[in-house]
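Students often ask why we bother encoding 3D structure as a string. The short answer is that it lets us treat folding as translation between two languages. Here is a chain of 308 residues written in the first language.
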Amino acid sequence: MYVSILQAMKHLYIIGNGFDIFTGIKSRYSDFQKWLEFHYAFIYEAMTTAYDIKGDWWCNFEMQLGNLNINKYVEKFKPPEMTWEEIQEKIKERKAFEEKYNVPPGLHIESKCAHRLEGLLDVLQYCFEKWVNSIQRSIVDPQYLPLEKNDSYFINFNYTDVIEGMYHIPEERVLHIHGRASKKEHLVFGHNKMMLSRIAKGPDGEKVGEVLDRYNKNPYQYLFKYDDLPGNLENIEYVHIYGFSFSPVDENYIDWIYGNTPKECKWEISWFSEEDKRRIDRFILNHWTLKERCKYVRLDDLKLNSES
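And here it is in the second language, the structure alphabet:
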């Protein structure tokens, strides 16, 4: 069913957070900052301390997750030096652990710094998912766009049900690549830094880097794994990219779309800020065959007076 539906599709929609914001959902990362500070102040303060947050850090929340100064973090949170007796006791505990779980000696390295960060990010994940569930109920006066509903397929970067619920698009034609909140799925967010564990100093830094590596938003894991998708995009005639900021965190996804859609299909890309436009310009410069078949649009110019 999945294959037969997609093979007939002519319109491919790439839906970013700007689409939900346009619709009326308060889903900016700055909104998450305010929500977190109000509802979970201790987590907000812990993040501020861990990352030395200043200025508009939260506006680029995903990218900033990978910008932790690992060595400074370790220096700040590394426990004080142990006495000789405490070291001997730790050696006994580790030996007992290795014997109990059949772990080869020396392979089990414990880092309190890494455990601290892991716990913080685990709680942040819980808070993020709770926030997403709350914002879906925040629409008061929704705005609509003229989407093609009959022969279209949607790759949705958002966690909400706007496409299914407000536009009545069947679920089988919407791919939530980073999870869907209403289905209680794990929601994916993260940075684009690679192998932070390799550039950190010392065992503590390496373990902290391993924690951060888990929050790498790897396109191979979340989009490229759909083996049938490239073949099923071969009849696409129009690619509509709405509300997508072309952030470096997600640009590789669009690069994959470019490489797996027909070379003659037309592209329509929305932009909101001048920074969005500069990022789109750079993308087109690096994918020069798009120049003659791509147009820029503003969502405000496309909006409908009411749902059609």
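Translate back mentally: The longest strand covers residues 11-15. Keep this in mind for the problem set.
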